[in-house]
Amino acid sequence: MLDEIAQLDPAMIRTLFDTSGQFRRSRSGGDYVENFHTDLRLARESGPVHVGSVEEVLGAVDPEHPLPYPEPVYSAFSFDTVNTVFRDPETYTSDAMRGTFDTFGRNILAMGGAEHARYRAVAQPVFARNMTQWWIDRWIAGITDSLLTRFERRGRADLNLEFCALLPLLTITGSFGVPMDEALRLREHIEQMISAGTERADRLAASAAAADILLPVIARRRGDPRDDLISKLISESVVDEHGTRHALTDDDVLAYARLLLTAGSGTTWRQLGITLWALLNNPDQLDAVRRDRSLVRAAVEESLRWEVTDPTFFRLTAHDTTLGGVDIPAGSRVALCLTAANHDPSRWPDPDRFDIFRRVKPHLSFASGPHVCLGMHVARAEMSVALNAILDRLPDLRWDPDAPRPVLMGLHMRAPSDLPVVFG
Amino acid sequence: MTGGERLSLSVTPETCAGTGVCTFYAAGTFELDDDGRVSIVDEHGDPDDDIRNAVEACPTRSLRLGPSGGGRP
């Protein structure tokens, strides 16, 4: 595997994953480097629900990219209102995500009710918590080991580009049977496919290009199944609305693949980076985790609570309703600010402080209700294995004193600008 | 918990979606069967706070904590 990783194009890795670079900034609202938590606190203190988008409420609308939503927009900032919306899918539907049908194919993100439950059940078993060891043994542990081997003797690294970016990408592409030399190209297509600033025709072309990589793998696995995610998906069946069981079609598998590749190769990369950034900025807490590995779990959970990498999700109202005292008409878009909800002082004292010793309470970083993140157990496993391995193999890990101290940036996607560290 | 009041735990496997949220918060208390439906392995298999977290976070509200002796809702 080391040889294959060595063949990955460093320039392409930098383009796709350098959070402070131009490509990423254009996709993540990356020029936003204000004090996010303070801005959110001020918004929440003036009311749990606001008229307007999160960008409008925070005064962070990019004049060159006005908001694309045709419908009225409201934003929720408190734990109770965000949790209420997630748990009432009949009032607040996932039709807000219908745009993904165009490019991903019909997928669970924007399905609702019984159809969502039927399709979610197809992939749930392989993402179950009792499958985490399978993910670790098949991909996570080996990739983690190889990535660390590449730089552990060097005494310094950019953990963002050399580690955080590659572990989730190679895990999810590996599980789909995509050869490593196509992993970055697939990630490039996925980026293009989901980019809001890209013309529809170009997004559809990127979706087709992703299919060109995936369809040959699907065909091979149909004839010769292996012990991987793609084979498991192919072997599954779905119950239709009449109660009849059907094998998944290639289109079903492709839609799932595009969704899982998108989620799997983006979110965990950035959340792992956030976890390391927060610990490196709190050396006493980093040291505590190093000495007592039972704290790894708490560190990951606190990172998830404290800085959600994708801080905003959307729902669409099916009928007139009232949320947090604000009347919302049918057909409105409701933006759910997960980070603001996770910093609700009625639930977490001193919420803006990163503190791995606080009592764990359920946060909303993986959403709640029926659409709760399918990949949450795999994401947690990747971050736990990674953090343990980093602490084992990079002794005395600390910021590189010769590099500028990185910042967390991005409005739609949060991540550290980079992670320059020294060790040993 | 002060330990004064015992709470009884009940589950509704019929509505369980098998997300495994409960097994993350309270792995000693809940497990999923071969069909991915929740069951209780040990009603006091974790500290009360962990069980409360699992009950609160269940995406389909398939877990319930009630006063002991109150019967199922």
Automatic annotation (TrEMBL), chain A:
It comes from the Bacteria. Pfam families: p450. Belongs to the cytochrome P450 family. This is Cytochrome P450.
TrEMBL record, chain B:
The keyword Iron applies. Pfam families: Fer4_13. Its cofactor is [3Fe-4S] cluster. It comes from the Bacteria. Gene3D superfamilies: 3.30.70.20. Keywords: 3Fe-4S, Electron transport, Iron, Iron-sulfur, Metal-binding, Transport. InterPro entries: Fe-S_cluster_ET. The keyword Metal-binding applies. This is Ferredoxin.
